[in-house]
Amino acid sequence: MGFYASVVLPRVLDRVMSGENFDALRRRLLAGTRGETLEIGFGTGLNLPHYADGVQRLTAVDPNPGMHRRARRRVDGTALPVRMEILDGQSLPFEDASFDSVVSTWTLCSIPDAAAALGEILRVLRRGGTFRFVEHGLSADAGVGKWQRRLTPIQRRIAGGCRLDRDIHGLIRDAGFRIALLENFYMDGIPRVGGYMYFGRAERPSRT
Looking at the whole model, is its pTM more than 0.85? Predict the structure, then answer.
């Protein structure tokens, strides 16, 4: 992993994804997290202040060592037990049905095989558990979607593989989840090509 990906990008993302608009979504998303919790794409730890009191332990995975280095100061400053792992979400070394909550915030856009990652999330989620997500992705507006597809090759090069044009709803549905809540909206202060949000909760069906 080069200097840009491991040093520059973590600093840029830490700044760009901070602020009240992001914090408001994080607080709302994480209000119901409980038990053994897994966060994929932990990044620089910006979710940490917003986890609910019901979380027993957080397992935080991210493949970028530079993200982990910047997250360490936040981990050291929280009372929540956190286990940090440098791992790719496409292959998780955890037992089946081992987490009550799984969280993904602005992460599925940059995982090379998002379908594989969602399959792993479904596998490690306990029955009755919840997958909580807020992601940006393909807009319902055809005109915006056209520009998202045009700009994705550039975005992938400068933003750690991030795609602007992923159909997050379709990916989660096709992975086998039951979607309990889904809201779509443009986030204030973000250009529309990168600001179309998918906010929601999904559950592991009882039959799986």
Answer: yes
